[in-house]
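REQUEST ID: PR-0412
SUBMITTED BY: lab tech R.K.
PRIORITY: routine
TASK: structure prediction, single protein chain
INPUT:
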Amino acid sequence: MEKTEAILIRELGGPEVLKLETVDLPEPGPGEAQVEHRAIGLNFIDVYFRTGLYKAPNGLPFIPGKEGAGVVVKVGEGVSGISVGDRVAYGTGDKAYSRRANIAARQLVKIPDGISFETAAAMMLKGMTAEYLLNRTFRVGPETVLLFHAAAGGVGLIAGQWAKALGATTIGTVGSAEKAALASAHGYDHVINYREEDFVSRVREITGGKGVDVVYDSVGKDTFPSSLDCLKLRGMWVSFGNSSGPVPPFEMALLSQKGSLFATRPTLFSYTSTPEELRACANALFDIVQTDKVRINIHQTYPLAEAGRAHRDLESRKTSGTTLLIP
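STATUS: complete
OUTPUT:
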């Protein structure tokens, strides 16, 4: 059996549990392709699995990571549409924190010419998340006024540009002056530094007291229930992450009290559950990136062996935009 290097989590905990080890790498099974990674995306969902907030499907130990890009070096039985030598990427896979991994072929998409491995790995999970949030969870258009928390994060920077390309009025929240400048350069019409201003009051001021049509919230505990107070009547609160901790349980009556609000907790997997949905989502992302309406900026890179340091910086909010691990 072949070997490869990977980050293996043997116990749940802090960034210190992320250790590079040599692990067995079997031949790809039926429906799998073996990918030699060239770049790996870092995402907050990786932290959730590391801490145990989200449960690893097969328990401990496990190799984290949902997003990567590389070259197909082997294919298993029954694989069609993917061949050895193809440049591929994925955003809903497993075991990305590795030099090589066997990935379900149905989760792979071919990378178009002109898009690098680094760009592909930087945008698949975050970019496809932006796609379903803006085009399907709530259909954003020229009449839309939206609020996006963590506007200088990986999803936020993509979503700001994409929403602006769709004609929306965009409001973003950030935690520093540097991140405010970054968000302003990536499609946000109004940027609120929540460390200096009350974002609810500022949103009401910007919207003339009306509130926004939709709030996109990946922060969780720290922005709840204030996010609801930013919405207009019958507005939608989209909770798609919890970087500050999970949203506490609440009574459904709260939604009626605050204006007959809608609330949803979507996941990328639910919006790409079929090969057709996955391809459509990925192709929409590739198309808008290739038109230069959305720029994918990689702000930090770390060697795979330093995944623990990357997690520590991510959790302490030292990072902005997209971060990559390089095998």
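NOTES: The two ends are 21 Å apart (CA to CA).
REVIEWED BY: pending
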